[in-house]
Amino acid sequence: MMKKFLTSILIVGLAAQSCTKVNENVYDKYAGDAFYSTPAGADNALATVYGKITGTWGSNYAGRDNCWYDLNSFASDEQVIPHRNTGDWQLDFAQLYTRTELPTLGIINNTWNWIYSSIYSANLAITQLTAAKADPSKIAEAKVMRAWLYYLAIDDFGDVPFYTDNNIDVSKIPQEKRAVIYDFIVSELKANVDLLSETRGGAYYGRFNKWAGYMVLAKVYLNAGVYTGTPHWAEALAAANKVAAGGYSLHSGAANAGSPLGYQYYELFGDVCPNDETILAEFITQNVVSGNIYGIRSLNSPNGVALIGFAGWNGTVIPSEYYDKFDDKDIRKKQFLVGAQAGGVTYTRDVSSLISPGAAPDEGIRDVKFFPVKPDASGASNDFPIYRYADVLLIQAECNVRLGNASAAAPFLNQVRQRAGLADIAAPTLDNIYDERGFELNMEGHRRQDMIRFGKYLLPHGFVPPAPATRLVFAIPTAALNANPTLKQNPGY
Questions:
Q1: Does residue 200 contact residue 246 with C-beta atoms inside 8 Å?
Q2: 24-46 burial by CB neighbour count: b if 16+ within 10 A, else e?
Q3: One-character DSSP codes across 30-89
Q4: In angstroms, rounded to a whole number, what is the distance separating the alpha carbons of residues 66 and 43?
Q5: Alpha helices in 334-426 (DSSP H)
Q6: Residues of the chain with confidence (pLDDT) below 50
Q7: Cis peptide before 477 (omega within 30 of 0)
Q8: What's the pTM value of the predicted model, to 2 decimals?
Q9: Structure confidence by residue, pLDDT tens digits, 456-466
Q10: End-to-end CA distance of the chain, in Å?
């Protein structure tokens, strides 16, 4: 039932993406307001935004490629797609990883366009729902989504165009300071989160409920020092505590012979994200609502055929420096494939070259955290966990350490470690928490932000030399500068 409900919402949203003129509506104002005041009408307005979260190639949060997830993941130290010496794979991914990308990079432009197209849809939904005097919880849901999108924008690009009314020419949208937009995001979340539904799962699987709203607030506060220069650790902890009050728990990490990777833990990244731990998921169904490519993209062809019955794309690899941080006892290490594999393939630990001449076909450790469910050329049906309770625990641990209370941090950190099969840490340090976030949340889009917050992003690693501080934000894409002459490029690009 809940899958049918969400699928219908997302399909309507995808169909609505081509509509860019608010005045092209078959309803007159009275009938339109009456429609959007109904539960079905309100969901229709929200669908335009939810449909864009899953989106498609070059226009999505995660699941598909060449947009937000790739921009933030390949700029970190956790994964990279090398150009292959056989001529396969564009250079974009390796350029992001080595910090040599230019403002014309397609993935940067795609991410910018996706964020602002989604903000446009959120503004439209808020206008429609407000005019119709719709259920306040639905108006709040649209406002929380818009705040989340602006949070993604300032996290990636710093000072960005800011508008809440679609009746403005794109060439005149003002560029606002990161700290000012931060204040707007916090204000919008605080004003609206408590109006959201407390329902977990069911019709709210894949939608922003109260707990997902507080999770966004926790994330925004957690990175306040990056955005404004003033940390807000106590506020981040309070918001994380609010999420914890929603009744979430860690999903079991017990052994499971029926799992391709041997543990129930990997159910978190399967066809449906379990409600016990998942706070917000991206609903994905192969050939219906986009697709999840991450496992398929990593496997090479014969290994993919042997494991999942479908040829892999031979793309993503895990740098050996990152892989080597995992303890052999850690059940999360099971996601990596190295050495001899099914299909007569042997993956090497190391990659000889990223760009020129590129890596040989079987070079590099592979990742199947999202072990593909029902795969084909469009991807797989694995849903994507945007936020999980494990992240909440790690936020609680981090904030306690930063507030000078390491002993209070230990129980939060150790819950995550215990599930993974690792020993407790009595007095965690920030380095312990940083490492644990890398072990627990890899391949989920959080690593670049964590590296920046912990002061690790500019350090050399693998093929990556030290980077200047200007790389802490991405370039504003050239196409955006051309469309809006009032915008100023970020320094260093």
A1: yes
A2: eeeeeeeebbebbbeeebbbbbb
A3: HHHHHHHTSHHHHHHHHHHHHHHHH-BTTB-SSSSSSSHHHHHHHTSSS-B-PPBTTS-S
A4: 28
A5: 389-402, 406-420
A6: 1-27, 30
A7: no
A8: 0.94
A9: 999 999 999 99
A10: 49
